[in-house]
Amino acid sequence: MTSSSTFIHVFLKEAYGLAAMDLIGQSDPYCRVQYGETIKKTDIIRKSLNPKWRRSFVFEVKETDEKSDAIDFTIFDYDVASTDDIIGKTRILITSMWDIYNSENEPMIEGWFDLTKKKAKGIFQGAIKVLIAISPNEKFKFSRSSQHKASKIVKTIGEVAKLNEINLEFENPDEPEVINALVLTWNVGNEAPPDTLKILQDRSQEFELIVIGVQECEYVTENDPETNDKVSCDNAWTKTILKSVGDNYTIVTHQRLGEMKLTMLTRKQDRIRLTRFQTGSVACGVGNVMANKGALGVAFHWDDTSICFINCHLAAHQGMVKERNENYQRISTNTKIGQGNLGFLHQYHYVVWMGDLNYRLDFGQQGKLKEPSAEDFKAIGNLIKAKEYEKLFEKDQLAKQIKENVAWHGFKEGKSDFRPTFKVLKGEKMEYNKKRSPAWCDRILWKDNKKQGLTQVFLKSEESIDTSDHKPVYSHLQIPYCPIFENQLEDKESFKICFEELKGEGLRSLDVGGKSDPYLLIICPSLFYKDGRTNTKSKTLDPEWSDLSINVAANNPLMIKNQILIFKAMDYDGADHIDDLIGTQCLPLDDYVVFDKDGNFDESLATEFKVQLYFGKELAGVISGKIRIMAGVEKEEQINEMRCCQLF
Q1: Is residue 169 part of a domain?
Q2: Does residue 57 sit within a domain?
């Protein structure tokens, strides 16, 4: 190497939420890093969707070499018997770094970069966290004072002698920052909407997020001049959205499934704060193949707040409550978002579910009849005119499913203080079709997986739009904000999470003999090097497992406190079979990371916990035990030490 060389330093820290490529819902990922013609690779991490490589690479650029404007990262799933599959890829542009580089200025970027295979369709395959620096030196020290690409670091903890001497300063603990989201659901009725949407145009404030879920959104805009075929309205729909929201917003992701669409926008200045995207969909139509019914979703992190939005269209008609509940079951267990076959209900801090849920009113004598009697229709109409919505809502099918714990466990919704949104006559402001009972088919619900829940500021309907037999429903949701908490200096030891007296009660039976062979996986992609796993117990629904300790990739208690643990009970089916999912649940760590009155971390005794497992809408048993979070654990030996970089 010559003194006139320049060096590009790449620190590949980890990946998050990689697509599962194996039948068991895992992958064996490694990363290929390419600058120019030079290729380097990480080690293979077995059976992981969240590998923590922590590998450093150095690319030498000689004075006579042509400078490349990008570094390419490709994640592969290792396959011993065939060609390795591509999980996802990303290209990180470094042109701007070259523009400002000189011997005294060593530019650095750091952040999460989303992986994709089909970017044009908004299909994401997880994300990688990367640090890149350009330096005249072969050895380079990454520093927190360098530019931070992902977002401003809100909290850091300085160098101290012992972990329990850390003094934590909280800012306005009673009034946390929130993410303001405008959420809109509308069954468009396969008719062209107005040129602009008043809901989006006449906003009461600037929202950090705007999320729009539509159903039956396939209308004719024009015909292809050569083939005379109908042209998809997809471009026209996104143009309508952008025209309505104004120039300050950009579309982050736009997905389609059949006639459903899910579009998420953010303010341009906030776009850099959204990372680690994951998308997925599932069909629930005829044979669970047709996409006229089903759902699509997107999950992501806003700084360190994990959020999932789902848009769906469930089974129609008055008497199809069971079918709608089964649609919920299929969507919640088969939509491949995030960690393999885990389902999305318990993976994220907050889940927001919108759509044409199609639940109706069981009013009067209608029961399972498709049409209401003239008497029932008139009675419903009189209650609507009198604005006695609560009396009508007592007959709401969805409210009954939630109240009786049949489905939608843990979901909440606001008060629908407006007229039913279905079924109105097109071209009329608010006149109902006598062939159907008026109903609140269009809903927005949410599920809090953190101790601090989100807040609904308002829930409204827009009655002025008359192009569809549904009225749009929209809501202002305030989502609690979790800042990014960085680890302390690398020479500080990491924490570990210890579980004692772990046991299950009344687990779901999956074997022919009415029993299961259960083991428990404990998952936390942001903290764990690999999933924690208990021993397997044979032929029992009430297992008692051995104690378990899991080393975590963190030594900042605030970083740990922000996370949720995911419990995933599995039924072991032998080495030659795929293990079956018994149920899942999550446990927020808010109450288990404790500080004393002076703000110092309190390494206290084990604390009891108990969680109810679910498999979609089905009760799947209870997991209980004791949890203790301990400091001062030696780092795992298998972690690759940085060879030429030091990361603070």
Answers
A1: no
A2: yes
- Structure-model confidence comparison of residues 492 and 100, the more confident one: 100
User: In angstroms, rounded to a whole number, what is the distance separating the alpha carbons of residues 76 and 85?
Assistant: 5
Same domain, 136 and 231: no
Q: What is the pTM of this model?
A: 0.87
What is the CB neighbour count within 10 angstroms for residue 477?
Answer: 25
Cβ(551)–Cβ(562) below 8 Å: no
d(CA 558, CA 567): 21
The rounded radius of gyration (Å) of the Cα atoms in the chain is 26
Is 130 within 8 Å of 13 (Cβ atoms)? Answer: yes
Q: Give tens-digit pLDDT for 269-320.
A: 999 889 999 999 999 999 888 999 999 999 999 999 999 999 999 999 999 9
Q: Would residue 161 count as lying in a domain? A: no
Q: Which amino acid is at 629?
A: I
Question: Looking at the structure, do residues 409 and 505 belong to the same domain, yes or no?
Answer: no
Same domain? 279 vs 360: yes
- Whether residue 138 is found in the same domain as residue 60: yes
Work out whether strand 305-313 and strand 350-356 pair parallel, antiparallel, or are unpaired. Answer: parallel
Residues 6+ apart with CB under 8 A from 283: 257, 258, 289, 290, 291, 293, 294
HEC string of 112-150 equals EEEEEEEHHHCEEEEEEEEEEEEECCCCEEECCCCCCCC
Please tell me what DSSP assigns to residue 3. T
**Which residue range(s) make up the domain with 141?**
6-150
Query: Which residues does residue 520 pair with via DSSP β-bridges, in sequence order?
Result: 569
Tell me which DSSP letter residue 223 carries. Answer: B
